[in-house]
Design a protein that fits this description.
Blueprint (H helix, E strand, L loop, with lengths): L3 E4 L9 H11 L5 H13 L5 H12 L6 H21 L6 H8 L4 E9 H11 L7 E5 L3 H12 L6 E5 L2 H9 L3 E5 L14 E2 L5 H7 L1
Parallel strand pairs: 1-2, 1-4, 2-3, 4-5, 5-6
Length: 213
């Protein structure tokens, strides 16, 4: 029986994936269309990866430039400035708010996100979402480590937890810990290939899927 639900944040609880895609495009638009498109393509193939790691890859492998800590800090700060207010105002994934409200006493719920911890906590606080979650984990804690911490904190077996995510990073974090996984697939963005796992378009059907696990 499932006792713990771990949620990714962007694209699972809040419709904020496109906000972050546009931020990457905006930050590199002065480098030309080819670079801009390459950056966006890399980002879309690696959702769920911390932005700092993305910027390091972009500078080293796409721009072929050095990216020291000062550059990475600057880019992360610029990115946060572009997205924080928009993510705070973004709509919920259909069914998310009602599921959380209806099930807060039934399941122990957590967030494991690649967004920076402080930024994530501010957004969740400003949206009034904190009441639904026992703990919130963001970067620099990896999702794999976050799942480990959650299992220990909640005192449950891996088989009693499920991770709801929309990226391979989410699936990998769940699989590494033996936790079951439910994929939220928006539109035609199915990044999971031939992986066998339940897929949902929104959170309206989440309770039914969890009960079938």
């Amino acid at each position: 029986m499932i006792k713990v639900i771990i949620f990714d944040f962007d694209g699972v609880l809040v419709e904020s994936v496109d906000i972050k895609t546009e931020a990457f495009r905006q930050l590199f638009k002065d480098h030309g269309k080819a670079v801009e498109d390459a950056v966006v393509r890399y980002h879309e193939l690696n959702t769920g990866v911390p932005r700092r790691e993305k910027f390091r890859y972009i500078y080293q492998s796409i721009l072929e430039q050095k990216a020291d800590e000062a550059v990475l800090n600057h880019m992360c700060s610029e990115f946060g400035g572009l997205v924080k207010k928009k993510v705070t105002a973004a709509p919920y994934v259909h069914g998310a708010a009602s599921f959380l409200e209806d099930n807060v006493s039934r399941y122990t719920m957590f967030i494991a996100s690649a967004a920076p911890q402080a930024e994530l906590e501010e957004i969740i606080s400003e949206r009034g979402m904190g009441k639904w979650f026992s703990r919130i984990y963001g970067a620099p804690v990896s999702k794999k480590e976050a799942v480990q911490k959650i299992l220990i904190y909640a005192g449950v077996k891996a088989s009693e937890a499920v991770f709801v995510g929309d990226a391979m990073a989410d699936y990998n974090a769940a699989a590494a810990n033996g936790v079951q996984f439910i994929a939220r697939v928006a539109g035609d963005r199915d990044v999971f290939g031939n992986i066998q796992c339940p897929r949902i378009k929104n959170l309206i059907s989440l309770e039914k899927v969890i009960l079938q696990i």
